[in-house]
C-alpha cells in the first residue's frame, strides 16, 4: 500500500513544468514480502522523478537508494514488531529515505571490522549516504538516510567518501 504527494506542477515561463516543493511517496510494509516491494517502489519513484520532473538521477543513485531501502526496511522487519513505513522525499538534490518502525531500541552502528560476519548493513549505509540520522518518535523510531540524486559532473561518484 502506498500513498504519494504529487502537487500539480505549474508551468514555467518557457512552458516546462516547474518542480513542486514536495515530491514524496510512502509505502507501508506489513510483512517480509514487502521488502522487495519497497525496493521496487524506490526504483519506480526515482524513475518518475527523472521522467516527470526532469531532475537528474544517476543509475548509481537508483542502485544505492534501493540498497539503502533494502537494508533499512529489512532491519525494521527483523527487529521491530508490526509493520513499518518507508517514505521517500526529494530534498535539495537528494532522496531522503526514511523508515519508521515501532521498536524503541536504537540500532548500533558497529565500527568497521573485516573479520566480523554479518551486521555490516548500517556500516554500508552510512558509508554510501551523504546524511544519516536516527530519531526517537513518540512511538518507535525513524531512521533517515540521504542519497545524492546525481553524480559529480566530473565523474566522481556522489556519496559520503571517495574510495
Topology as H/E string? Answer: EEHHEEHEE
- Helical element count? 3
In total, the number of strands is: 6
Assess the beta-strand content as a share of residues: 15-25%
- Contiguous runs where pLDDT drops below 50 for at least 5 residues: 5-11
Shape designation: globular
Fraction of residues in H or I helices: 25-40%
- Calculate the mean pLDDT score and round it: 86
Question: Largest beta sheet, briefly?
Answer: 6 strands, antiparallel
Structural class, from secondary structure content? alpha+beta
Quaternary structure classification: single chain
**CA-CA gap between termini:** 38 Å
Features:
single chain; 163 residues; alpha+beta; 6-stranded antiparallel β-sheet
Structure, described:
Helix 2 packs antiparallel against helix 3 (121-128). Helix content is 30%, strand content 25%. It has a six-stranded antiparallel beta sheet with strand order 1-2-3-4-6-5, covered by helices on one side. Residues 5-11 have low confidence and may be disordered. The protein is globular. The chain has helices at residues 34-53, 59-79, 121-128; strands at 2-5, 24-29, 84-91, 94-101, 131-136, 141-148. It is of the alpha+beta class and 163 residues long. The protein contains three helices and six strands, in the order ββααββαββ.
Q: Could you outline the blueprint of secondary structure elements for this entry?
A:
Elements: E1 2-5, E2 24-29, H1 34-53, H2 59-79, E3 84-91, E4 94-101, H3 121-128, E5 131-136, E6 141-148
Antiparallel strand pairs: 1-2, 2-3, 3-4, 4-6, 5-6
